[in-house]
Write a structure and sequence with these properties.
By secondary structure, this protein is α/β, with parallel strands linked by helices. It has 30 helices and 61 strands. The strands form 14 sheets. Strands 15, 16, 17, 18, 19, 20, 21, 22 and 23 form a 9-stranded parallel sheet that branches. Strands 39, 40, 41, 42, 43, 44, 45, 46 and 47 form a 9-stranded parallel sheet that branches. The protein has a 5-stranded antiparallel sheet with strand order 1-29-36-31-34. The radius of gyration is 38 Å and the shape is globular.
């Protein structure tokens, strides 16, 4: 039967989701990325949190008025005759205004018109009775007879006061919606009327509503909104491996921190105040804003002298604690907050300064912020516009976007939601300003955001909600950016009201509290006192953090019912789930959970698929596994295509894959996912197009009875150049760090003009190559390998069939010898492998064993090999090789064989990382056995086995690619899926099949792996021809590089920081972008009293700990004396046995500090005393900054290895006649000494007959290959090593040739 495809509106959200937990199964497979990559925009239906009658108006309704108004909200509430269907009943004229009931001849709509107005407030009115402590939601539809005029709705109270409810720009000929709200302090009668400054215009009114709510009702609405927009109901079922429900299982669900972006502003005081740091970092804030440190007047107080030191240090602090940062602000439109030098500039110079400012600050923090407030308060002020013209703000956004197109750019304004009586910044005026900026040339591509400062007095929550409803029509993220409440007895209560209202609104994407601390007090509101004890406002913030999912305690603790179910309502976010049941033991199961109400938006806006949001497809009546045609697209040869989409099935859990069918009938599989019934799963994959033409996108599942539901599909093309650019950007963010140093003395004096040289001595990222037994007998192979690699895997020498060819006769001779060589050369080794699940690769005698005999033999094997190389000799073990494709041990010993061997290996060597190692997981999309979903599921099953929870696990993907073009899009998506586990990934055996493009494809694979943040190491199964590597050969039999070898050498050098010298500025600072790794740092610093001095230290830059302090400080240890100069000072250590050890000396002087440096190697342990001595007993010895650092011999050796900068090899005359010798030498060394060719006995064998032919020829060879030479030697003082004729000369005769030379 032919497959049918339906495109339907989205189904109504299910009340609950049922998720199966089989001991080890992840509830959902979506893992959040870095905070700046997560969309903060809600993805829920725009229902008002009040009642079904509420709605969020569209931007068209707000800014483009309608021919016919909507019906009144809440049926008008307490307003009489709200739709004017009963004439003017209930309405009267206020002031001189006359009212007239009219009916539109075109639409039949009823309304009233106020005319004959002589004052702005003369209009139609209605009296109502308002109650204290009620919140009133107000709305009305208005138009005017002439012009576009601002109309305000307000209430005149019995005491003569006026309470504005909201405002709108009304137009002639169409209806505009005014939405707002009020609260009152006293009960009594009040009169509604409308105010506009144009008293000559007639004012038309229709569909008026005023609905009262108690605070309890309002809070109830907030809670319901939170349940709908911030939480999801989930239903978890715990089952055993056979699928049987497990009742009475204890389930604990912990949220891993707050999901909603909620934070607090900070300032530079936090950098020097440990108590402030501790308070801030212990709260779990997800976002922050710097109070003043990024503002222009801070960064450039005088023209041309920029200072970002405070902002840089604050950004570093936030990054170290995983707190996202909002940039505040690029420009401020208030002239009171411009620098004096700026206000005095001509318009031309002012424009130049603005451009320079935007370029400087936006470039500096590109990619490091989650938002930028580009222009601050440009509704209330116009300093930019007054100087540069009406488009100044729009131009500023345009310039910022051209520099940083990824970061959302915000307008930021006050009183838009705080004060209903401020006509300058009403929600409608905000939207009009935003629309004007958007319409500026090319600004329609900008990711805009709405920033609402939220500086409240007494909150008018009804007006606040109505204003946000209005602003939501823009369909961009809304943030409350500077929330505070003025001081009053109710300050904490009001703060809670505002924060709850913001959090409950479905269109609010984040909030920042404006409470940065300083000793002199906060801007308007503090959360703590000066000892960082919470004030009532701080208690409110802590309470809400905990309530919204940021607490440290379990979110849900419960027990499953008789059917194994547990129901819970969870905030969106990541969760850890642990399960305890008698039949499982204490599983300690910990997995991440993400709860989503609906699938996320399509990536890249759908790409080539287009925006189909709001529709989804259902494939049913399926006959074949891939029956489900979705769409046909055209692909271009040479492009990569990234695919993603959301799928679910109607029948339990099923594997669903995406397939691309060519016009030749070829099926290219692009990725798979385990889809579930009742919830959406994310399918990710991709293809490389090796042809141009149409392809059909299909979805396949082997269970043809299951319907496949599809939504938010994306297919996005990339050229190879674009793909490479993305790799380079990821390398810059994942493998490098920007490090800021300061050179200074301990007393704080900065060293200006210090020359600092950085030399990387080893990379942090492990990049290595396999080796085999041939290396033991080939010095060429040894030298080739050791000059390049510090990580290896033995290709076969540790495998069972190599170490126990006959039962009971173990032989580790070869593996031991290779381990000895690796240790001598400082090479780290991965153990490969303990077991191989392929029956072909067992020792011959193993295949014939019974199950009992196999269990006994395997136990001896694992105990023998792991114990032999335990204790830090290996960095990893491939415990089980290829157990997705094969099952030799499972077939004979049971399903848990792999899991049990992981447990035993961990018991024998608990500190080594244990890997599952498999092929075709990233290489080939058509191999379902080992695809990333199956790999992840199988490994999680192994790690969930009792006792395996503490294992240091690793994901090993072999990386054996064919000779064809690698599918980098599928490779990347597969690594993404594996990385979602949080387990380190290694490419363990990278190779490329022989072919004309082997080197190019090898480079593509290595770059893709190196750039992926989840990959923590790469080993190639490749090497020289002399090592027997005939598939991916890196060097020929003479160790000359192949094209693939050139690629490897190029990448080794590219992925390291080149030596560089920096000079410290006037404050001692310099910055450097460095690859992670170990560095030697040498410092030459000026000294006014002596010759230039120098010092040396070691430094490590890493991904996890980039800096121990915001400023890495170079310190100098010094001594001086009280009188004279040239006094020798000795440092002496006296041991407990009375022995004296002189550990160093310095010549000290009066009035300046000299450095004393030394050391000792004690031959016994115990207490010792350090003292400083001088032979002049009258001189005082001044001592400062003393250090005594102990090192193990291993650490000392490591340091020795690190500090070698120039490493070379001697050469002799035989190099002139041996091409292999020349090739071997030139491929390795850049420094040499001629062993004998320059010596006197070589160049003048007979007196007066000099011969430099040999050294001259050797010099030409060195020059050709850029090899530096040390001359060796002019004279040799050993009488045995003189030319024979020299030995017989007299002293006078000897002097003559010495002078002549």
């Amino acid at each position: 039967m032919a497959t049918k495809l339906l495109l339907l509106p989205p189904p109504p959200p299910a009340g609950q989701k049922t998720i199966m937990l089989q001991l080890f199964v992840i509830l959902t497979s979506l893992i959040s990325s870095a905070l700046r990559q997560v969309s903060f925009t809600s993805t829920f239906e725009p229902d008002s949190p009040l009642t079904a009658d509420s709605f969020l108006p569209s931007l068209q309704q707000i800014l483009q008025c309608l021919e016919v108004p909507h019906r009144p909200q809440y049926s008008g509430g307490i307003i009489l005759n709200p739709e004017l269907n009963r004439g003017s009943a209930g309405w009267s004229g206020f002031g001189t205004a006359q009212i007239q009931h009219r009916v539109s001849s075109k639409t039949g709509n009823h309304f009233i018109v106020s005319h004959s107005r002589t004052q702005p407030h003369h209009s139609a009115s209605q009296k109502v009775y308002l109650l204290k402590d009620r919140l009133y939601a107000f709305s009305a539809w208005l138009q005017v007879s002439q012009g576009n005029v601002a109309v305000t709705a307000g209430f005149k109270t019995s005491d003569g006061g006026f309470i504005p409810a909201g405002a709108v720009i009304a137009e002639p000929g169409c209806w505009s919606m005014l939405k707002g709200g009020i609260t009152v302090n006293t009960s009594g009668e009040a009169e509604l009327y409308f105010h506009t400054r144009n008293s000559t215009a007639d004012l038309w009114v229709d569909s008026v509503s005023l609905q009262p709510f108690t605070h309890q009702e309002w809070r109830s609405h907030q809670d319901r909104s939170i349940e709908q927009t911030r939480k999801e109901k989930v239903r978890i079922q715990v089952v055993d491996k056979q699928g049987n429900p497990l009742p009475n299982a204890n389930v604990t669900i912990n949220q891993n921190g707050l999901s909603f972006p909620f934070g607090c502003a900070i300032n530079k005081n936090i950098l020097s105040n440990a108590a402030y740091k501790n308070w801030f970092t212990s709260r779990g804030f997800r976002v922050t804003t710097f109070e003043n440190e990024m503002k222009w007047y801070t960064n450039e107080p005088s023209r041309g002298r920029e200072d970002y030191s405070a902002a840089d240090a604050l950004l570093w602090f936030a990054q170290q604690h995983n707190v996202a940062v909002r940039g505040h602000n690029v420009l401020w439109d208030d002239p009171n907050y411009q620098q004096g030098w700026l206000n005095s500039l001509s318009p031309r110079d002012f424009g130049t300064a603005v451009r320079t400012r935007i370029n400087s600050v936006v470039s500096r923090y590109k990619g490091k912020l989650v938002a930028w407030d580009v222009v601050n308060e440009n509704l209330h002020f116009s300093a930019l516009e007054n100087k540069l013209g009406s488009y100044a703000s729009a131009l500023a956004y345009n310039l910022a976007y051209k520099i940083d197109w990824e970061t959302p750019l915000f307008m930021n304004e006050y009183n838009t939601i705080e004060e209903s009586g401020d006509p300058a910044s009403t929600p409608v005026k905000y939207l009009q300003k935003l629309r004007g900026i958007r319409r500026f040339s090319n600004n329609n591509w900008i990711k805009f955001g709405i920033g609402l400062e939220s500086h409240f007095g007494v909150p008018n929550l009804a007006y606040m909600r109505a204003s946000i409803d209005t602003l939501a029509a823009a369909n961009v993220p809304i943030w409350l950016t500077e929330v505070d409440v003025k001081s009053s007895p109710d300050q904490a209560s009001y703060l809670e009201q505002v924060l709850r209202e913001g959090h409950a609104h479905p269109k609010v994407s984040g909030m920042v509290v404006w409470a940065a601390w300083s000793p002199q007090g906060c801007y308007r509101m503090c959360l703590t006192d000066n000892n960082f004890r919470n004030l009532p406002t701080g208690d409110v913030v802590d309470k809400l953090l905990h309530e919204w999912g940021g607490g440290r305690e379990a979110s849900v603790v419960g027990e499953t019912d008789a059917n194994g179910y547990l129901e819970a309502s969870l905030f969106h976010g990541d969760y850890n789930v642990s399960i305890v049941h008698p039949r499982l033991g204490n599983s300690g199961l910990v997995r991440k959970v993400v709860c989503l109400k609906v699938p996320l938006e399509a990536q890249y806006g759908g790409g080539m698929i287009g925006n189909l949001e709001g529709l989804y497809g259902i494939a049913y009546n399926r006959t074949y596994s891939h029956d489900s045609v979705f769409k046909t697209v055209q692909v271009v040869e040479g492009n990569l295509y990234v695919f993603s989409g959301w799928v679910q099935v109607t029948d339990e859990s099923r594997e669903v894959g995406v397939v691309f069918k060519t016009n030749r009938g070829e099926l290219i599989r692009g990725g798979r996912v385990t889809a579930k019934a009742g919830c959406w799963s994310f399918l990710k994959g991709g293809i490389f197009a090796n042809f141009s033409g149409p392809v059909e996108i299909l979805f396949e599942s082997k269970n043809t009875s299951a319907e496949i539901w599809i939504e938010n599909v994306s297919l996005h093309p990339f050229t190879m150049s674009e793909w490479r650019s993305h790799q380079d950007r990821r390398v810059a963010t994942e493998r490098k760090s920007k490090v800021r140093f300061q050179v200074k003395y301990k007393n704080g004096t900065s060293l200006r003009g210090a020359k600092v040289t950085l030399n990387q001595i080893s990379p942090e990222f492990p990049f290595g190559c396999g080796m085999n037994y041939r290396i033991l007998s080939s010095t060429g192979y040894q030298e080739w390998f050791a000059s390049r690699f510090k990580y290896t895997t033995f290709t076969n020498e540790m495998k069972w069939y190599s170490t126990e060819k006959r039962q009971g006769q173990e032989n580790y001779t070869t593996a031991d010898a290779m381990m000895k060589f690796a240790k001598e050369k400082g090479i780290s080794v991965r153990g490969h492998n303990i077991f191989w699940d392929d029956p072909k690769y067992q020792p011959g005698w193993v295949r014939d064993l019974s199950s009992e005999e196999l269990a006994e033999a395997a136990a001896k094997r694992i105990d023998s090999v792991v114990s032999r190389y335990a204790g830090g000799q290996l960095i990893a073990w491939d415990v089980m090789n290829e157990n997705l494709h094969f099952s030799f041990f499972e077939d004979r010993l049971g399903r848990n064989a792999s899991a049990e061997y992981f447990l035993r290996a961990h018991q024998l060597d608990p500190n080594v990382r244990l890997f599952m190692n498999e092929y075709n997981t990233i290489e080939y999309s058509g191999d379902e056995d080992a695809d990333p979903v199956n790999y992840r599921n199988r490994f999680e099953e192994i790690l969930s086995y009792p006792g395996n929870q503490e294992i240091k696990a690793g994901i090993g993907v072999q990386g054996h690619f064919s000779y064809k073009q690698p599918n980098l899009a599928y490779m990347r998506s597969s690594l993404d899926i594996l990385a979602s586990t949080g387990i380190p990934i290694w490419l363990t055996e990278v190779s490329i099949g022989p072919g004309p493009n082997q080197a190019e494809y090898l480079e593509q694979v290595l770059r893709e792996a190196y750039s992926h943040p989840g990959v923590e190491g790469i080993i190639m199964f490749a090497g020289p021809e002399a090592g027997g590597f005939n598939e991916t050969t890196l060097a020929d039999k003479d160790f000359n590089n192949t094209a693939a070898g050139d690629v490897v050498d190029k990448l080794i050098h590219e992925w390291e920081t080149k030596p560089a010298t920096f000079e410290s500025d006037e404050k001692g600072f310099f910055e450097a972008l460095l690859f992670h790794g170990d560095y030697n740092i040498s410092v030459e610093y000026p000294d006014e009293t002596t010759d230039p001095s120098s010092a040396f230290l070691h430094y490590k830059v890493s991904k996890d700990v980039k800096l121990q302090d915001p400023l890495s400080t170079f310190l100098i240890d010094l001594v001086q004396t009280s009188k004279g100069s040239g006094i020798v000072v000795d440092a002496v250590v006296r041991t407990s046995s009375g022995e004296l050890h002189n550990i160093g000396k310095a010549i000290a002087s009066n009035g300046c500090w000299s450095m004393l440096k030394g050391g000792l190697s004690p031959n016994s342990s115990g207490l010792a005393e350090v003292s400083f001595q001088s032979k002049d007993p009258t001189a005082e010895v001044w001592v400062e900054n003393v250090a005594l650092q102990q090192f193990t011999m291993k650490q000392w050796r490591s340091h020795q290895d690190h500090i070698i900068e120039k490493f070379g090899c001697g050469m002799n005359l035989h190099i002139l006649s041996s091409k292999p010798y020349r090739n071997w030498f030139a491929s390795r060394f850049k420094h040499t000494t001629f062993t004998n060719a320059m010596k006197w006995y070589s160049t003048e064998l007979v007196q007066g007959q000099e011969n430099y032919t040999t050294p001259d020829a050797m010099l030409r060879f060195c020059k050709k290959h850029n090899i530096s030479i040390r001359g060796h030697n002019v004279f040799w003082d050993n009488p045995k090593c003189q030319p024979q004729w020299v030995k017989n000369l007299t002293g006078e005769e000897l002097e003559q040739p010495r002078r002549r030379g």
